[in-house]
Design a protein that fits this description.
A 10-stranded antiparallel beta sheet has the order 7-8-11-12-22-19-18-15-16-35, with helices on one face. Strands 6-5-13-21-20-17 form a 6-stranded antiparallel beta sheet, with no helix packed on it. Strands 23-26-27-30-31-32 form a 6-stranded parallel beta sheet. Helix content is 19%, strand content 32%. It is globular. It is an alpha+beta fold and 638 residues long.
Length: 638
């Protein structure tokens, strides 16, 4: 069947598709479609995967623009199951094809997940072919790419949930001698990227559809857009145009119109500092033979340090404050009041906030409403996320010891409790960072009194940001996952994918795929702690300039201090006046650049002769060129 530029074919014998766009053929490749069936054995559920093609009954119907295949009579543990899987491929425009998936006759929790369609690759080997990936800020991966191959191989064998660090955006693409397709997941809340290796040593990708509250429940959709001449910029702009079409792109100017306080951080550097850390003996960071507690500074000491920065000439500053609660960083959430007594309690905390306001600095708090600590005064097991088998999630990594997860339905009431109490005590909070909300897939919950889907979980998280934003708070979260981006003014960082993520080697060839989509929608700081998210040996300021982002300022230097078993920034003694002034000079041109371009679209990114020299062009005509070998950046302002 054909429509304008597209021809669509399907083999009833192999289950493979072929899409020809203006004569260039894309074919099914890599991992074959399959279904994972969930069966209950005693009190536990087990998962059994079968090729989709293993269904005893298969029926395909061809029409003018659509191919519909029905798969039924799957067998699991000797039992024939009642549901039917319906897979549709449809030509929906001159250059677009949509695949959809749904289930009929779902009687129970039989369907855990379906992987469909198979990835697509060029039919013939091409000279210049690469994969476009949305892991963190984004990367491209040429066919046969060998650097950091062990990591890449690993990513071909794990599922990467959408809206996590492994997949900021529900989009990927492939480019073969300019022929390009963009794949956009139209129903992203219960979906993961799942990659594999295909022909020509290609890294190819498709989508793993997860059940929602035990069932496939609703129709899942993915859109493919084809081009004769494109590149990774094309993939990013296809997704940006999709967001505009769906009325889902909210610019930073639109956010400022609703909350003018956001203007205060235009051209401001970001200071990340910690007050108090205390590692619980049940935490994986606990060192039975070492030091597990540190007071970096009292609130009054920090206030005096902020005065010093102002006196030395730092006009603007966004202050991200960690470890301010009763037991310090990552403890006792979702209720961590009163403020740390060792640091000065309510009086010291109030004074610190007032001094920041007087200096014209933005005082913001690191907070958390997902991790749900068993020793929190607010803990109630009946409010914890409940899994399909009746258990609760469990973790023991972080400083506070043992948390489950708070069901998102109760997050807003916890937020209100904290910030109403802070207001009652006169603490002048100007911004709030709600940790992990923006970069974790939604938490579905099976509790009989608060069953919620992953999508509903994300909406509940969004309400927390909106509640504080309406009070004039400048809202932030960890990383720019797309599902909550419209609720935020800034994030903690939006780095590139490395292994290890701190001071590690790049995964593929880094490109600013994310900023090509949302640069004028969110403020992203760069050059955080110990080269986190910056390829080993490279200067984070160059990436900050390329992306016209907010710079991190490091008035305490870059030294580390071991707490428990973990190395962390030593936020104690400030640098000398001379060194602080040098630090101001480092960040000054980056702050000025961000102030000029914070609301401008990144139109294009390109490599100039090699991957080591790059150029970004913005919608006002300004361009930034970085040279990673010479460790320089050049700004051509318009």
């Amino acid at each position: 069947m054909a429509e304008n530029n597209i021809k669509l074919n399907f083999s009833k014998f192999s289950g493979n598709y072929e899409i020809a766009h203006n004569g260039f053929s894309w074919i099914s490749d890599g991992r074959k479609p399959y279904i994972t069936i969930r069966r209950k054995v005693g009190s536990r559920y087990i998962a059994i995967s079968h090729p989709l093609w293993s269904a005893l009954k298969k029926k395909t119907k061809f029409s003018e623009k659509r191919i519909v295949t029905r798969y039924s009579d799957f067998i699991a543990l000797g039992k024939k199951l009642p549901f039917t899987i319906v897979c549709t491929a449809e030509i929906t425009g001159e250059d677009t094809v949509e695949f959809s998936l749904k289930a009929e006759n779902e009687a129970g929790y039989d369907i855990q997940a379906v992987y469909f369609p198979a990835p697509f690759n060029s039919k013939l080997k091409r000279k210049n072919s690469y994969h476009v990936d949305p892991m963190r800020q984004g990367f491209i991966l040429p066919d046969g790419y060998k650097k950091n191959f062990a990591t890449i191989y690993g990513y071909a064998h794990i599922k990467r949930p959408i809206n996590t660090g492994d997949c900021y955006m529900p989009v990927w693409g492939r480019v073969c001698d300019g022929h390009t397709f963009t794949a956009i997941v139209d129903t992203p809340y219960d979906a993961s990227m799942y990659s594999s290796f295909g022909k020509h040593k290609a890294f190819v990708n498709s989508v793993y559809w997860q059940s929602s509250l035990g069932k496939l429940s609703y129709e899942r959709k993915i859109r493919f857009v084809f081009h004769e001449n494109g590149d990774y910029n094309t993939v990013a702009k296809d997704y940006r145009n999709y967001l505009i079409e769906k009325n889902q792109l909210v610019t930073i100017d639109e956010k400022i119109a609703k909350n003018p306080n956001i203007k205060k951080i235009i051209g401001a550097p970001v200071l990340h500092h910690k007050i108090f850390s205390k590692i619980n003996e049940k935490s994986q960071f606990y060192d039975k033979n070492g030091s597990n507690e540190i007071l970096c500074a009292t609130f009054r000491e920090r206030a005096e340090q902020m005065k010093r920065l102002k006196t030395l000439g730092l006009d603007k500053l966004y202050i991200h404050t960690d470890g301010w609660g009763k037991d310090g960083y990552d403890n006792k959430h979702p209720y961590i009041l009163p403020p740390c007594e060792e640091a000065g309690g309510w009086d010291g905390f109030k004074k610190f906030s007032e001094v920041c306001r007087e200096l014209g600095y933005v005082f913001a708090l690191h907070d958390q409403y997902r991790d749900y600590y068993y020793d929190s005064p607010a803990f109630d097991k009946e409010k914890a996320v409940t899994n399909i088998d009746g258990t609760n999630p469990y973790c023991s990594i972080w400083d506070g010891g043992e948390p489950s997860y708070l069901c998102s339905e109760f997050a807003l009431e916890a937020v209100k409790r904290t910030y109403n109490e802070l207001e009652e005590h006169g603490v002048d909070v100007q911004g709030a960072y709600l940790d992990v909300f923006s970069i974790m897939q939604g938490d579905e919950c099976f509790h009989k009194d608060h069953r919620i889907t992953r999508e509903e979980s994300m909406h509940f998280r969004g309400e927390c940001f909106d509640y504080l934003n309406e009070k004039g708070f400048i809202m932030s979260s960890e990383e720019p996952g797309m599902q909550l981006l419209n609720h935020l003014a800034l994030v903690h960082h939006g780095p590139h994918a490395l292994r290890p993520q701190e001071n590690g080697q790049a995964v593929g060839i880094p490109v600013p795929l994310g900023n090509l989509v949302y640069h004028d929608c969110i403020m992203v700081p760069w050059n955080w702690f110990n080269n986190w998210g910056i390829p080993k040996g490279e200067d984070g300021d160059l990436y900050g300039a390329l992306n016209a982002g907010m710079p991190y300022i490091h008035p305490y230097g870059n030294s580390l201090r071991k707490i428990g078993t973990d190395n962390r920034t030593a936020d104690i003694e400030m640098m000398s006046d001379e060194d602080l002034k040098k630090e101001f000079e480092r960040i000054r041109p980056l702050c000025e650049l961000q102030a000029k371009l914070y609301n401008k679209e990144m139109l294009k990114h390109e490599f100039l002769g090699s991957y080591r020299k790059q150029k970004a062009t913005y919608s006002n005509g300004t361009s930034v060129v970085i040279d990673l070998d010479k460790n320089t950046y050049k700004i051509d302002l318009q």
